[in-house]
Design a protein that fits this description.
Elements lengths: L6 H11 L1 H7 L8 H10 L3 H9 L5 E3 H5 L15 H16 L11 E3 L19 H21 L11 E9 L4 H9 L6 E10 L4 H10 L7 E4 L7 H10 L7 E3 L12 H16 L5 E3 L9 H5 L8 E3 L7 H9 L8 E3 L5 H4 L1 H11 L5 E3 L10 H8 L7 E3 L7 H11 L7 E3 L25 H17 L6 E3 L8 H5 L1 H26 L1
Parallel strand pairs: 1-2, 2-3, 3-4, 4-5, 5-6, 6-7, 7-8, 8-9, 9-10, 10-11, 11-12, 12-13
Helix pairs in contact: 1-3, 2-4, 3-4, 4-6, 6-7, 7-8, 10-11, 13-15, 17-18
Length: 519
């Protein structure tokens, strides 16, 4: 893709393209050219040059997001490239920065920020091999332990132990890399590279292990906490977590499915819910909350009213909200600040059509992302939806998969969507007329792919033509049948699959044992 480059950047590319020459000449390069050469090397995937640049980094800080982002010399944003060759070279270069010969007292580096790296679905690097968040967690932990082992086995310059570099990273821990990360965190105080966890995600992990490792991360620094797949964190455990650990800087919280289930609430559970709400109220920085696939019928106010800071992102998809919940949301002080809202899995046209539009009108001036998947939005509701979306001029993402809309209704809707100036991404459903007559919504997984693919492709072309004729080539329209791309899930799907099979096997064994006892 053509991008604007300055003559300086083109010269930098020419310099680093000859890796052997560039590596020999680094000692003669002015320090203020290091950032320029770093981005040029990253773009050309010159791993050896990247390694040497990091090993000899002359500044106090090393911020990957800023170095790879849009600059005066090169407008292309490379922070979306999680190139395995480049990232491994950077991290091993960081290890060798500690071990290299020059006097440690001359080394200036104090902070390395890896949090600006963004994991996306489509990669443009030549090697086509990515290093996701889980792999970055794994490699950094491994390098920290290698450093400690090196110090134990060799006589090092005493000054080496004076080196202290804070490495800011978004950790991603599963059962498979748990032990390695725990060891790195336990020995953090002895290692020159100090892992500083800014965001933490946990999947496929026993609850006891989650509680142990979260305390090791230094929760006082944590800004984002994601407890997602196969961590059985229920309401009593969440209350225990908030009672035992303080999260003063937490801005974003994602809870696993079924954390809350009001259908089996006792009086004790009602009190627990209030306690959790009060604890979240003490998190004065909290602006993003995801609680999908919990049962929260009639309890949204009790949970959210103690919050002192308005939410900018709220995901309550498939939470069985009732009319009272929607009335609270539309009247709450959160409504005017919501930039991202997910109400998927709720029958909006039948249960609360007017209240939903009231909520939409309150957040319309700031709303950037709206997700309404499996909401029973039919052709007769499209004009109302257009009316409700019209004030949302800042909308960038609109997802409405799984709704029973015909191809004609989709065309009508797309003509309107062309008018939203900031819109960049649309996820639309397979048209109802592509499925067999009598298909029941929401469509089960077994039937999801049983549609006329040729007819769908034809309709998708027509929808994209509508965008093209309106000069909206900047809008990406797609139908990801099994949901939006999740980089973390994609990276660990094999482990997740193995975990699910194991859980299913254990459940069958328990069921068989129970049957045998009954016999």
């Amino acid at each position: 893709r053509p991008t604007m480059k300055s003559l300086r950047f083109i010269s930098a590319e020419a310099f680093v393209s000859n890796a052997e020459f560039a590596r020999k000449s680094l000692g003669c390069v002015a320090h203020n050219l290091f950032p320029l050469l770093f981005k040029a090397s990253y773009l050309l995937e010159q791993g050896e040059v990247l390694h040497d640049l990091v090993e000899n980094w002359p500044f106090v800080d090393f911020n990957m997001g800023k170095l790879l982002g849009t600059t005066v010399d090169c407008q292309e944003d490379l922070s979306y490239r999680t190139c395995s060759v480049c990232l491994e070279s950077c991290l091993t270069g960081l290890r060798d920065y500690v071990l290299s010969c020059p006097s440690p007292y001359m080394k200036k580096l104090k902070v390395v920020d890896l949090t600006g790296i963004k994991d996306v679905e489509v990669q443009f690097c030549e090697c086509k091999k990515t290093m996701g968040r889980w792999a970055r967690t794994q490699l950094l932990s491994k390098l920290c332990l290698e450093l400690l082992l090196y110090f134990q086995q060799r006589q090092c310059n005493p000054g080496t132990f004076e080196i202290s570099v804070d490495v800011l990273i978004d950790l991603f821990v599963t059962e498979r890399n748990y032990e390695l990360v725990v060891q790195a965190l336990l020995k953090k105080c002895y290692c020159p590279l100090k892992i500083c966890c800014v965001a933490f995600r946990s999947d496929n992990l026993a609850l006891q292990k989650f509680f142990y490792i979260i305390k090791l991360t230094d929760p006082s620094l944590l800004r984002k906490l994601e407890v997602v797949h196969n961590v059985r964190l229920e309401m009593e455990h969440l209350e225990m977590l908030f009672n035992s650990i303080h999260f003063p800087l937490l801005t974003s919280l994602t809870l696993p499915a079924r954390t809350f289930n009001v259908r089996r609430f006792t009086a004790t559970d009602e009190q627990r819910l209030m306690n959790i709400g009060e604890k979240m109220g003490e998190m004065t920085q909290l602006t993003e909350l995801s609680m999908s696939f919990s049962v929260l019928t009639g309890r949204i106010q009790k949970l959210l009213s103690p919050l002192k800071t308005p939410l900018k992102m709220l995901d309550v998809s498939n939470c069985s909200l009732n009319h009272a919940d929607m009335v609270y949301l539309s009247n709450s002080f959160h409504a005017n600040h919501l930039e991202a809202l997910d109400l998927s899995g709720h029958n909006i046209p039948d249960l609360y059509p007017s209240i939903f539009f009231k909520l939409l009108s309150h957040c319309s001036s700031v709303l950037k992302s709206l997700t309404l998947e499996d909401c029973n939005i039919q052709d007769t509701y499209v004009n109302m939806l257009i009316l409700g979306l019209s004030p949302c001029q800042k909308l960038q993402e609109f997802r409405f998969l799984g709704n029973p809309l015909s191809s004609q209704a989709l065309k009508h809707l797309f003509k309107f969507l062309c008018e939203l100036p900031m819109l960049k991404n649309v996820e639309f459903p397979v048209p109802r007329d592509c499925y067999p007559i009598g298909i029941i919504y929401p469509i089960d997984d077994a039937s999801l792919c049983r549609f006329d693919h040729q007819k769908y492709e034809s309709i998708a072309e027509e929808l994209n033509l509508i965008l093209l004729q309106a000069n909206r080539e900047d809008v990406k329209a797609s139908t990801p049948l099994f949901g939006s791309y999740d980089a973390a899930l994609q990276e660990t799907n094999n482990e997740l699959g193995a975990y699910l099979i194991k859980s299913f096997k254990e459940t069958l064994e328990k069921f068989t044992t129970s049957l045998n006892k009954m016999s």
